[in-house]
Structures are given as C-alpha cells and as structure tokens.
User: What shape does this take?
Amino acid sequence: MMTTATEGRPKSKFNALTIVYSGMFAALMMIGANITSFVPFLVIGGVPITLQAFFAVLSGLLLGSRIGALSITVYMLVGLAGAPVFAKFQGGFGQILSPTFGFVVAFILTAYVAGKFVERKNTLPTYIIAALVATAINYLVGTNWMYLAYKFWAVAPEIFTYKIAWLWMVPPLPKDIILAVLAGIFAFRISKHLKVRRTF
Assistant: This one.
C-alpha cells in the first residue's frame, strides 16, 4: 500500500492560518500607531493617543502567548529596519534611543502575558483580567523605560521627575483601561469562531 510523502511527518506548529493572523496583527499595530493621522482629536496635550496597546493585547488573547508575541516582534523589527510604522510615521534603528521605545518593547511582553492567561483558562472574566494585567505591565515597563531614557540619554525638561513621567501617562490611561476590557470581551467571543491554536 502506497503512502503519501507527508504521512508520518510531524505537523508544523506554524500553519498558513497562523502566519496570516500574525501578519494581520503586525499590520494592525502599524495602523494603530498612527491612528491620529486619521483621527486628529486623539492627540491630548501633544501626546498621540494610539491603539497599539489595544492591538497588542488582542493579539495575545486571540493568537496565544508565543504567536501573539511573535506578531508584535515582527512589527518592531519592521520599524527598526526603517519602515515608518512607529508613532508619527517614524522608523529606523535610531528609534531604539527614543524615550517611548520602551512601550514598543513592552507590547511584546503585553501580548505574551495576555496569551498565557487565556491559554490556562478560557472564561470571560479571565479574558478581561488578562487584558487589564497585560495593559498594566505595558505601562509599568514603558513608563520606567521612558524615565530612565530621559535621565541617562535623552534631553528632559529641568523639572522632569519620576512622578512627572507617570503623570504624562494619565491622559491615555482611561482609554486604555476601557479598550482593555473591550478587547477581553471581543476576544472571548471571537475566539470561539477562529481556529487559532494557543498551545504552540
């Protein structure tokens, strides 16, 4: 009896659908970073209110910890390679010295943590808690990176302090909390219809 060439081979962890979803979320991060170009009123006090945190959380909830983090890593690498995908259409390896680059790095951890939560328990409260915890981690890592950047290699205002660094995060905080809850609800509902493997 003849067998096909693929019989007996282990299935790849990265199927075509996973690759499509990963590319989609990398693209959504690019759009979310520059949403203020299309909706100018989302700039408060000169600070652009982006949707990157929302999409980073959503990628982890829907794609799982590893694939979600991979999607955001792809986004970061594309930006460092020179594509204008970061906030204000910026890009290039020099962005690594930007005080706000810590948030980009934190998005990877955000997706990973969100994914880890829902991989262990698949309930609506878990999805919402995962989104809120991941958002908190994003703020913690990003804000501390920004503070250290202004203290050691970036030009900061003379009155700049650790407290001021956190006060700068107040304007986008309510938006990100609301979006985190919505991401949890949306991901819980849509995960039942998407054939996404979270156990990679």
Strands lie at 43-44, 47-48. The chain has a mean pLDDT of 84. The chain is about 60% helix and 0% strand. The helical segments are 16-33, 52-63, 65-80, 101-120, 124-152, 162-167, 173-190.
